[in-house]
TrEMBL record:
Provenance organism: [Mycobacterium] wendilense
Family assignment from sequence similarity: Belongs to the acetyltransferase family. RimJ subfamily.
Protein name: GNAT family N-acetyltransferase
Source species, domain of life: Bacteria
SUPFAM superfamilies found in the cross-reference section: Acyl-CoA N-acyltransferases (Nat)
Annotated ranges, domain N-acetyltransferase: 14-174
Length: 183
C-alpha cells in the first residue's frame, strides 16, 4: 500500500495530511525559526511561500506518487492550522527515515508526539516494518519526543552529513512497526 493511501491520519488533536498550498506561508515562516534552522537541517537554505508551493507541486507530488518521499503537514485537527511538518524519506520496501519540526506556537502541546504516532501508524499500514530517525545530540527536546513515542537509541553520538549539507553530530534511533502500530 502507498503512504498516500493511508492519509490523512488523526491522532489526538492533530491530523497528519499532505502538505498543501494553503500551508505555504506558515511552512516558510516556520523554517525561519532559530530552532528549526539549527536542528531541522532542511535541504534548502531559505523557503518562501512560492518555493513551498513549487515543492508541493513537484518534488512532494513526485515523492507521494512513487512512494519515495512524503512531506506531510502536522495540523490542528479542529482548525486545520499548520503546526509543523513530518517527513518520511529514504523510503524503501521495509523502512523509512522520519524527521519532524514544529512552529514555535505549536510546541509544548504534544503535537510532535501525536504527529509521530500518526506517521508511525501510516508507515505500518503502508507495510513498513521500521522507522529510523536521527536527532542532533544536543537537541534534548527531539530526543525526548522520539523516546516518548517508542523510538530506541541504536547508535550514540557520531558525525553524519545532514540534508542541509552540514556535518552534524547525531544520535540514531529506530522504531519497530507491526500491522498499524508500534511493536
Amino acid at each position: 500500500m502507498n503512504i498516500v493511501d493511508c492519509l490523512p491520519r488523526r491522532e489526538g488533536d492533530v491530523v497528519v495530511r499532505p502538505l498543501a498550498h494553503a500551508d505555504a506561508a506558515a511552512y516558510a515562516a516556520g523554517t525561519e525559526d532559530p530552532a528549526v534552522r539549527r536542528y531541522g537541517h532542511l535541504p534548502y537554505a531559505q523557503y518562501t511561500p512560492q518555493s513551498v508551493r513549487d515543492m508541493v507541486d513537484h518534488e512532494i507530488a513526485r515523492g507521494l506518487a512513487d512512494n519515495s518521499l512524503a512531506v506531510l503537514a502536522i495540523a490542528d485537527a479542529a482548525s486545520d492550522e499548520f503546526l509543523g511538518s513530518v517527513v518520511l524519506f529514504d523510503v524503501n520496501a521495509d523502512r523509512a527515515e522520519v524527521g519532524f519540526w514544529l512552529t514555535p506556537a505549536a510546541r509544548g502541546r504534544g503535537a510532535a508526539q501525536q504527529g509521530l504516532r500518526a506517521v508511525a501508524s501510516i508507515a505500518a499500514d503502508a507495510g513498513l516494518g521500521r522507522l529510523d530517525a536521527r536527532a542532533d545530540w544536543v537537541n534534548e527536546a527531539s530526543r525526548g519526543v522520539l523516546e516518548s513515542v517508542g523510538f530506541v537509541e541504536t547508535e550514540g553520538p557520531h558525525d553524519e552529513l545532514a540534508p542541509s549539507g552540514e556535518t552534524v553530530t547525531v544520535l540514531t534511533f529506530e522504531l519497530r512497526l507491526v500491522g498499524g502500530r508500534t511493536a
